[in-house]
Write a structure and sequence with these properties.
single chain; about 550 residues; alpha/beta; TIM Barrel; nine-stranded mixed sheet; eight-stranded parallel sheet; 17 helices; 24 strands
């Protein structure tokens, strides 16, 4: 007798092939059999009219800190995710010496929009090294399967201390970093991750440490990762990092390179496709490169106390380094404003904001006299006031002690262009950023959005193709064995859904972070069940507490 039999489902196996009507049986956490009229199970479920697919593999998350206080990685399991990859962009919390804990948290608060108060209360620092961090996660139990990148900024800080964010590394320091990465790979890291993005700034406006790495450092670290024939190199690309250089790293290390974040920018509409074409050309030359794309528009809720959309503007750097007392004076300064306006005259494909003032709306004002501004765009309001949009926005925020709330739809706002990205043969659909930017947006349900909005509503791709993009393809790219497919002997990571209703809800704000801090979450629509390693973790009503520790730490990957 099987542990579970799901009967009469439309099975989409993760290969992209058309589905079949069949039963699927689970025993001892694995798929035991697939076929018609299977033997009985201790638990049986009739899935007539529903689709059964592998669970979603979310390859771009930032749950590194959250997992130390919330082993379930909420809300991802309730949104169909059964495996998550953490440590993307190199923004990890391990390795970390005790004296660098506060700096690490302050950096994450700035670069990933995480709550400093929540991290101060919530992070369990029962580790210093990367191996100790993995051991802690494994011993504490996990609500879904977790694979971890070794992160460049943390490795740099371990070796160089505060200097990691101000200078190039010496040969000896690079050698020390290589040793840490080699050790991380030996204990089960999925690869090595970094960022050269100009929008990635840490505490005090300093660049995140990885941005100070020169080409020789990156090459040495990627080769250290790949010297045992395993690992994926993940990089969030800055304007000065070329696809040609990244192809050379793939060639030297003989390892796959995942390049983020390839989002469509209406001010430079061809740039992202130029990158994908270069990635395709590299792949034809035998070098394995992928471009990480998103199926969600990049929208952010923000104030000028934490203006993440503007932080990639070079002239804004002066404001990034300002103290709370200095900041209003800088924002009033006409020279500062002129420099920002000048920078915005030259759009950059990798920069979040390029002067699309019509895409920024006032969400919430502090003063009653400004309530009429709410719901209107900065472009329209500035035009009515006969001001430049930057001046209007800064003046309003200054009058409200920088507490005015705005929302910006920054990238991926053109549906036709996004559809083209999603169907590109060398793109990988991800970029949920789950665990980060918690007060700005929640894209943890990106997979359900793909299945509902893009497949059912927009008919952008077939349902089997979309399931493959969320399951089998990431399993192949990241060399995750026996997951991502419905095959006998594979782990029973499963997602059952109604293709006619599947999707995600609108985001809502809750106050459930450590210390009562706020975050945005959304809920599944049309999702009937999620199983991790054969244990049910969610049903149509949401999370199932009996599956809270169904996951495992993934330490073994293919070559």
């Amino acid at each position: 007798m099987f542990d579970l039999v799901i009967r009469n489902a439309q099975l989409l196996d993760g290969t992209g092939e058309a589905g079949i009507q069949a039963d699927l049986a689970v025993a001892e956490g694995k798929i035991a059999a697939i076929g018609p009229e299977l033997d009985c199970g201790q638990e049986e479920l009739d899935a007539q009219g529903l689709v059964l697919a592998p669970g979603i593999i979310d390859s771009h998350t930032h749950y590194d800190a959250q997992l130390t206080w919330d082993s379930s990685a909420d809300p991802s399991p309730g949104l169909g995710v059964t495996t998550a990859v953490i440590g993307n962009c190199g923004f990890t919390i391990a390795p970390c010496r005790s004296q660098d804990q506060r700096l690490t948290m302050a950096n994450l608060a700035k670069v990933e929009g995480m709550s400093m108060a929540a991290m101060e209360v919530g992070i369990r620092w029962d580790f210093e090294t990367f191996p100790e961090y993995l051991d802690m996660l494994e011993q504490g139990g996990l609500g879904l399967n977790i694979a971890a990148f070794c992160g460049h900024s943390s490795v740099r800080t371990w070796v160089m201390g505060a200097d990691a964010r101000t200078r190039a590394a010496t040969a000896q320091e690079i050698k020390a970093m290589c040793a840490i990465i080699t050790q991380a790979m030996a204990v089960g890291a999925i690869g090595f991750a970094t960022s050269t993005s100009g929008s990635h700034n840490g505490d005090g406006g300093y660049p995140m440490p990885s941005r100070l790495a020169q080409d020789d450092e990156l090459r040495a670290l990627v080769n250290a990762m790949g010297k045992q024939g395993q690992g994926v190199f993940m990089l969030t690309k800055g304007a000065k990092t070329s696809i040609e250089f990244l192809e050379s790293l793939a060639a030297d290390s003989a390892r796959p390179v995942m390049i983020a974040a390839l989002l469509h920018n209406t001010t430079r509409p061809s740039a992202v496709f130029d990158d994908l074409d270069a990635i395709a050309a590299a792949s034809k030359r035998g070098h394995e490169l992928y471009g990480q794309v998103s199926c969600c528009p990049l929208s952010m809720d923000f104030s000028l106390q934490s203006p993440y959309p503007f932080e990639g503007i070079e002239a804004w750097g002066l404001a990034l380094k300002a103290t709370p007392r200095e900041l209003p004076l800088i924002l009033k300064d006409l020279n500062f404003r002129s420099a920002v306006k000048k920078d915005l005259q030259t759009p950059q494909a990798v920069r979040l904001f390029n002067g699309q003032w019509q895409n920024i709306k006032v969400v919430e004002t502090v003063l009653a006299e400004h309530r009429t501004f709410e719901g209107k765009t900065v472009a329209d309001l500035a035009s009515s006031a006969q001001q430049h949009p930057l001046d209007w926005m800064l003046d309003l925020s200054l009058r409200e002690n920088l507490k005015t709330r705005f929302v910006a739809e920054l990238l991926n706002s053109d549906p036709k262009a996004v559809a083209k990205l999603l169907n590109h043969p060398h793109s990988a659909i991800a970029l949920s950023d789950a665990g980060a930017h918690l007060t700005f947006f929640c894209d943890a349900g990106f997979g359900l959005h793909l299945l509902g909005y893009w497949v059912r509503d927009q008919k952008c791709m077939t349902l089997p193709a979309a399931v493959r993009r969320l399951t089998g393809q990431p399993a192949d790219i990241y060399r995750i064995p026996k997951r991502g497919y419905l095959k006998p002997g594979y782990w029973a990571d499963l997602m059952l859904f109604d293709p006619l209703t599947v999707g995600r809800s609108e985001s809502q704000r809750v106050n459930d972070l450590p210390g009562g801090g706020p975050r945005l979450i959304n809920h599944a629509i049309g999702l009937k069940g999620v199983w991790v390693n054969g244990q049910q973790v969610a049903n149509e009503r949401g999370r199932v507490s009996s599956g809270d520790l169904a996951g495992c730490l993934l330490r073994e990957f293919g070559s």
